[in-house]
Amino acid sequence: MFEKSLYDLIRGLRNHKGNERVYIQESLKECRREIKSNDMDLKATALMKLTYLEMFGHDMSWASFNVLEVMSSPKYRHKRTAYLAAVQSFRRDTEVLMLAENQLKKDITSPTPTVISLPLMAIPHVINPSMANSVLSDLLPRLNHSHASIRKKTVVTLYRLALVFPETLRPAWPKIKERLLDEGEDPSVTAAIVNVVCELGWRRPQDFLPLAPRLFDLLVEGADNWMKIKIIKLFATLTPLEPRLIKKLLPPLTRLIKETSAMSLLYECINGIIQGGILEAVDGTAEGEEIARLCVGKLREMMEIGDANLKYVALLAFDKIVRSHPHLVSLHQDVILECIDDPDISIRMSALNLVVGMVNSDNLVAIAGRLMRQLRNAPVASSADDPANDRGHHSGFIPAADSDDSDAEESLRQRERKSNQTPPLPEDYRIKVIKRVLEMCSRDTYANISDFDWYIDILVQLVRVSPATRQTSTVEHTEISDFDSRGDVAFDIGQELQNVAVRVRSVRPEAVEAAQSLVLVDRRDQMFPASGNGGQGVLECAGWIVGEYANLLSKPDAVLTSLLHPTNSQLPSRTLAIYLQAIPKVFASISGNEQISWTPERKTIIALLLARIVHFLEPLATHPSLEVQERAVEYLELMRLAAEAASGTATENSSEDFVDPPLLLTQAIPALFTGLELNPVAPGAQRKVPLPKDLDLDTPINPNLHYLLQQADIEAISDADEDNIYQAYNERVGVPIESSITAFERLEGSKSEPSSYQNAIEEEYLDPDIIARRKAERRERYKDDPFYIDPDRDRESGVSTPLHNILKVNNGDELDIDAIPIIDLDLVNKDRGAEQRGREEVARSTAAKQRKLRRGFEIMVDETLEGPEESTASSRDGSRPDLVRSAQARGKKSLLEVDSSGLGALSLEGWGDGNSKLDIERREAEEAEMAKALKEVERLRLEMQRAAERIQAKDGPAEGTLVRRKKKRVKTVKVEGAEEAGEGPKEVEGEGEAVVKKKKKKKAKPEEQEKEEGRNEGEAEEGLVKPKKKKKRRQVVMDESVPEGN
Amino acid sequence: MINAVLVFNNSGQPRLTKFYTQLETSVQQRLISEIFTLVSNRPISSCNFLPLPPLLANTSKSSTPTTPHNDTPSLVTYRHYATLYFIIISTSTESPLALLDLIQVFVEALDRLFENVCELDLIFNFETLHATLGELIVGGVVVETQLEKVVDGVRTQGKVAKRPVNDGKGGLSLGGFGRGDGVWTGR
């Protein structure tokens, strides 16, 4: 009477706006009470309410037993509620599952179709392997149910059984197949089976080849588009196994593509042709040409319709074609490239994937430029846009129905955004773009790059737009900073810079220059993103470059100062270790010149430098990272020595004499770092280095190591200057405040909206300072070229005062759009038709391949040793595995994943094999045979009885007893037969056979060929069987005596 | 196959949650809220396919390119009707465009059953909502795509309750879904 219905609960929620939480807690309490009552209606209502609240995250696992109670109610309404509750709330660890089994079995065999479908729909959600086997025998007959809706649901349920317990598919599959092949079957059942077959199909395509004719008929004749789509998808996995299918499939698929009005079917036809490898198979023939053109043409149409969904799926299809037919796709690069800037991030993502496959040396600059412009111009996504920082994340939802008063029309309009604003780019998208840019540029050891200066500028620009890394406060006091910069995208950028510096000798100075600008502390505001710690990962590689090529530095002193900057001790240990290595290298390049006399001035400078280095290294000798510590200690000693040497060497007195600088500075230290140049080494080359014969890795170098280490530990503890250690661990050195971007720069960023979608202009993706430098370089390069029109010179022809000109150049008139290089050919072509341009593109790309690397950049390839090629393909073609890092290791199972891998090992073909028969089937066979044997025995017994009746008088056993005996156990009947039969030879033989067979079955060694022998053996083994029989007989006799006694 | 079907409204309140795998309640809630964040931030003109939410994206990278399909959910399809979002999470064996049509069938079936359906009908009759879905999808596999049969299937289970009086407002406005609706009706 006072109980709430679900309706009341929802109304109540709506009336308690603001304090739903309290209301829900109260309601839950009520439900707990109600669900324990004996009134089934009340129980069911409470369950319904709980299920409703479960949707909002309120646990109801405690009610699982009550779910079962309600499930057992005879009323359909209650059952329905309970089954829904079970589906929604049962989890893997729900304990009552075992108890549910009987109820499920009972409801499956119910005469009412609506009741049957309840367990059918629930089983996929609650099934576990042990249940699967027992439920199977009840499910199988449901495949022949008179209602089509039961049949189709059963098919799916059987499929889900097979997922948890693959062996169940063996008895089920022939029956499902029979349904599928039945042409009189209800179309929706056929469709459901096709759906299931499609799911099974990709796991074991070979098992489904025999179905191809029937599926083909369904594809041609069927009316259901959904089913046709599924069949096409299935055929796409079958064609690789059976090439003859392709010829057969082409006509109907072509017809569908041409005729269908359903875009989904059209798309899946094209998709099927691509995925099934049909394009490759018919490649070269006129037919193949036609089908390829048809597909790509239709895809282009889809792109041009303007529907975002069609655009998205068309891109997906293009992405699959591009691997095999890049030329076909590049015909349509105009429409595809437009998608890179699509406001929809999903479309962008797939366009991005596609574009990497399309890149060649001609369009690389344009494509990379487009991407760079995107990175530079879009605002960084705020943390609120990140789904991980979502409010619902922690609190969960509170049910509140507040949306009923919002009009449908209105709500649609509210969501519409102003389209002229660039949407913020989420971080993972940024990372992806950066990785793609790197990937497309570095592909095939820079085969597509014709201008490495441009590439270096791109890399520097990428650092500025790289997003902050997640692990921000990495260097906490005592903690060993195991900050893994390798996961950082900035590290990848750095690697690229390093690669260019090492491999392309002609641009090494430029690369070193770039690295230098990255390392310099006073330029950090400019070079790195204004906020966050983005791009820091690049320092590791930049540090290596400035050290390794220190002699190419334009400002070695400034670099050294930056390397020694006190804030550097806060860097990740990996970077710091690289820095430590770079410091002596740069120092050596500054101090190592033996041509300059050892003047007092030089002496002072060197001494000062050494003092600063020592000052920087000293605290690092106690750094928590071992690598840093070791390097710091080593160089600290070296530098102290050098300082001694420097102060000990007398300087020149007058300017005439030449005094040699200390040898330690000019010879010893530089000798540490010079010598052979470092070249790139192929992955796997190391493994080919032959092992020296006399190398002994087993003998310990110092057998006393353990003791020594212990000793060192004790010493370290007793060390006096604990304060220093404490300081090093616990006190932070002041971190400089990241100065924010200036107002001017901000203005700049907003001003440069992309003006054209056709071509990327450098101004749009490179920062002003980089452009200024490029321009200056260009001017320098074409200084003597009479055909180069210098925009500045041109404009100032009237006022040609050189002084003014110099001033002008120095001021850096960055926003000069006239500075677009006139050699850019792409601009001219833009107005032509896409088709034509595409064709040209193809011609040009083939030409480009022939004259690869026009500008004569020499790119070093990986060094390797001649030897057996054991390494992977990646090392052979020179592509770099570190960039194309594919996560091959299969990670943990995805959240929603329904694992079907168990099916992969199950062969449906091996159906006839005796030894692969499963238990249930074997049991069935046994039972069938047993029943047959029993029948035989019974028949014989009756015969004998009749014979006995004929002989004997009417005082034989009455018919009633006989009937009753039939119900008795096997043994009873059989042995009784033997007893009554007496010594009749024929009878004994038959009976013996049955017994022997039974024995054999129990031992589970049923051999078909033994059947023949069985007859003979039956007689032969009779002696063996006899004792057992005797025993039984004794029992039976007692049994028998009871009715007879009566 | 289909891994989950979700319905929630414009403020992220769930109206239907159906996961075809057993999943912890807290994880379910988190997934819903992640998808809601993704979906509610989308401009109106964007396509109906979502990037994977972080919960799913973390593990889905393991997909091997050698096999055309795998078990990992890789497709999040949604449609927005008036106040409600309909979401389907599925693996690559489903056709993206066909799933959009499937959602349309789902909503049309609800519209038939409730006569000009609105969010309120679904709130108060969430059993019918589940029943309708059950006629369309069983255990993650689509069993019916014909509107009539779905509606009949639900009706045989019992009378569909009408919404309480005075509560109803506008319907889900089936036609108001937006552009491109008539372009591909691929059922």
Describe this entry's structure for a reader.
Chain A: Adaptor protein complex 3 (AP-3) is a heterotetramer. The complex is a heterodimer of chains A (1046) and B (187). With 1046 residues, chain A is mainly alpha-helical. Chain A is built from 53 helices and no strands. Helix content of chain A is 62%, strand content 0%. In chain A, α31 (556-563) packs antiparallel against α32 (573-591). Chain A starts with 5 loop residues before the first helix and ends with a helix. The C terminus of chain A is likely disordered. Chain B has one domain: Beta-Lactamase (2-Layer Sandwich), CATH 3.30.450. In chain B, the strands form two sheets. Chain B has a five-stranded antiparallel sheet with strand order 2-1-5-4-3, with helices on both faces. The model of chain B is unreliable at 60-66, 165-169 and 175-187 (pLDDT under 50). At the A-B interface, α1, α3, α5, α7 and α9 of A face β1, β2, α1, β3 and α2 of B.
CATH topology of the domain at 427-471 and 481-680 in chain A: Leucine-rich Repeat Variant
Mean pLDDT across the residues of chain B is 80
Strand fraction of chain A: under 5%
Quote the distance from N terminus to C terminus of chain B: 18 Å
SSE succession of chain B: EEHEHEEHHHEEH
User: Could you say what the CATH topology of chain B is called?
Assistant: Beta-Lactamase
Q: Point out poorly predicted stretches of chain B.
A: 60-66, 165-169, 175-187
Number of domains of chain B: 1
Task: List the uncertain runs of chain A.
Answer: 382-421, 471-486, 734-760, 794-802, 819-834, 846-854, 869-891, 910-918, 956-1046
Arithmetic mean of pLDDT of chain A: 72
Pfam families (chain B): Clat_adaptor_s
Keywords (chain B): Membrane, Protein transport, Transport
Main location (chain B): membrane
GO cellular component, one term (chain B): endomembrane system
Spell out the blueprint of helices and strands:
The complex is a heterodimer of chains A (1046) and B (187).
Chain A: H1 6-15, H2 20-34, H3 40-54, H4 64-71, H5 76-89, H6 97-108, H7 113-126, H8 129-139, H9 148-164, H10 169-181, H11 187-201, H12 212-221, H13 225-238, H14 244-259, H15 263-275, H16 278-281, H17 286-305, H18 308-324, H19 326-330, H20 333-340, H21 345-358, H22 364-377, H23 392-395, H24 408-414, H25 427-446, H26 452-465, H27 489-503, H28 508-519, H29 524-527, H30 538-548, H31 556-563, H32 573-591, H33 600-620, H34 626-648, H35 663-673, H36 685-688, H37 705-717, H38 722-730, H39 743-751, H40 762-765, H41 768-781, H42 791-795, H43 802-811, H44 826-829, H45 834-850, H46 873-876, H47 901-904, H48 919-951, H49 959-967, H50 970-981, H51 985-1002, H52 1010-1020, H53 1022-1045
Helix pairs in contact in A: 1-2, 2-3, 3-5, 4-5, 5-7, 6-7, 6-8, 7-9, 8-9, 9-11, 10-11, 11-13, 12-13, 13-15, 14-15, 15-18, 17-18, 18-21, 20-21, 21-25, 22-25, 25-26, 25-27, 26-27, 26-28, 27-28, 27-30, 28-30, 30-32, 31-32, 32-33, 32-34, 32-35, 33-34, 48-50, 48-51, 50-53, 51-52
Chain B: E1 2-9, E2 14-19, H1 25-40, E3 49-50, H2 54-60, E4 75-81, E5 84-90, H3 96-114, H4 119-124, H5 126-136, E6 137-138, E7 141-142, H6 147-156
Helix pairs in contact in B: 3-5, 3-6, 5-6
Subcellular location (chain B): Endomembrane system
Organism (chain B): Lepidopterella palustris CBS 459.81
Domain AP complex mu/sigma subunit (chain B): 1-159
